[in-house]
Design goal:
The chain is α/β, with parallel strands linked by helices. The chain is 25% helix and 29% strand.
């Protein structure tokens, strides 16, 4: 039983939005960053073409570039976001950040619930482990799928880089510890799909990442 992953690069921050879907057509929308009508149409068209059924909206964290499309997804599919509770303040004050950047933003609904560390998401009986990996933001989480050997990592770990830690609630020491103890503990073959840029693997980053090496 396979899971399939589609990603789009949206908004001025070049953020990666993911749709994770199963053979039964159920799908999870992750970090909708669509910032205008053309990007919204791309997301909607893919879901229509694949005849997908969106069942959950989940966030790796609540920085503005990852939540610009939350209101659209809620309006289109009647889904409310789920995120880690430690990022709720970021989510609720995102309008201030949008104004600072001069970005159009409509506040989304209050969360449907909170993602609990060490719990699991289910998609057609396939499990995704929720890994709390703070440092980039207090409530940053990653989603690990053991059978298919991939991690949807948000802005924790990038190809030869890591998430910035100079934003409110950020801490490089905390981030480095999250990467070393939680992400680098995963199999080296695990493919990492990040919130920006290209994918990478745990094994590659353990050797080549200039910020956090083993």
């Amino acid at each position: 039983m396979a899971l399939h992953l589609k990603w789009f690069t949206f908004n001025p921050f070049s953020e990666n939005t993911y749709i994770l879907y199963a053979d039964n057509k159920d799908c999870i929308i992750i970090d909708p960053g669509c910032a205008d009508s053309s990007e919204e149409q791309l997301l909607r068209s893919f879901i229509q073409e694949k005849k997908l059924n969106p069942i959950r909206l989940i966030l790796t964290h609540a920085h503005i570039d990852h939540i610009l499309g939350v209101s659209f997804v809620h309006q289109q599919y009647q889904l409310k976001p789920e995120l880690h509770q430690d990022d709720l303040e970021l989510y609720n004050t995102a309008g201030n950040i949008a104004r600072m950047y001069g970005i159009s933003y409509k506040q989304g609904p209050q969360p449907a619930g909170f993602l609990l560390p060490s719990s699991e998401l289910l998609l057609e009986n396939q499990k995704l482990e929720i890994i709390h990996a703070p440092g980039h933001s207090p409530g940053s989480v990653c989603f690990y799928q053991k059978d298919n050997q991939f991690l949807i990592g948000g802005d924790v770990l990038f190809y030869e880089s890591v998430g910035r830690t100079d934003l409110p609630g950020g801490s490089f020491e905390t981030l480095a510890n999250s990467i070393k103890t939680k992400l680098y503990a995963l199999p080296e073959s695990t493919r990492v799909f990040s919130g920006h840029g290209s994918s990478t693997t745990i094994g590659y980053e353990k050797v080549n990442n200039p910020f956090v090496k083993v």
